[in-house]
Amino acid sequence: MASTTVNVVRWTALLSGVFYGISHRRTLQKAHDAEKEHHAIHEREHLIAQAKEAWKRKQESSKDGVVTDPEDPRFDLEKLVAKWESDS
């Protein structure tokens, strides 16, 4: 049978390890949450930049009056071919 001093040391070591594990997990979780938020912010910025670029291209293509989307009811193949020939 172990003495009371050994039992106290064992329980102290066990409780110290448990509290260390809890505090370490909190630290790791906080770092992970910060990285996740950072990634989400940059992803949104990237999507906004893509949307602005797509809008800019759409505005530039609409200036010459030629619709390049074949699903659009205003699509005219002859105008599109004429535009391509003039660009070349």
UniProtKB/TrEMBL annotation:
Pfam family, one: ATP-synt_E
UniProt keywords, alphabetically: ATP synthesis, CF(0), Hydrogen ion transport, Ion transport, Membrane, Mitochondrion, Mitochondrion inner membrane, Transport
Location of the protein in the cell: Mitochondrion inner membrane
Domain of life the protein comes from: Eukaryota
Chief site of localization: mitochondrion
GO terms, biological process: proton motive force-driven ATP synthesis
InterPro entries registered for this protein in UniProt: ATP_synth_F0_esu_mt
Molecular function (Gene Ontology), one example: proton transmembrane transporter activity
Role played: Subunit e, of the mitochondrial membrane ATP synthase complex (F(1)F(0) ATP synthase or Complex V) that produces ATP from ADP in the presence of a proton gradient across the membrane which is generated by electron transport complexes of the respiratory chain. ATP synthase complex consist of a soluble F(1) head domain - the catalytic core - and a membrane F(1) domain - the membrane proton channel. These two domains are linked by a central stalk rotating inside the F(1) region and a stationary peripheral stalk.
Family: Belongs to the ATPase e subunit family.
Subunit note: F-type ATPases have 2 components, CF(1) - the catalytic core - and CF(0) - the membrane proton channel. CF(1) and CF(0) have multiple subunits.
Protein name: ATP synthase F(0) complex subunit e, mitochondrial
Biological source species: Steccherinum ochraceum
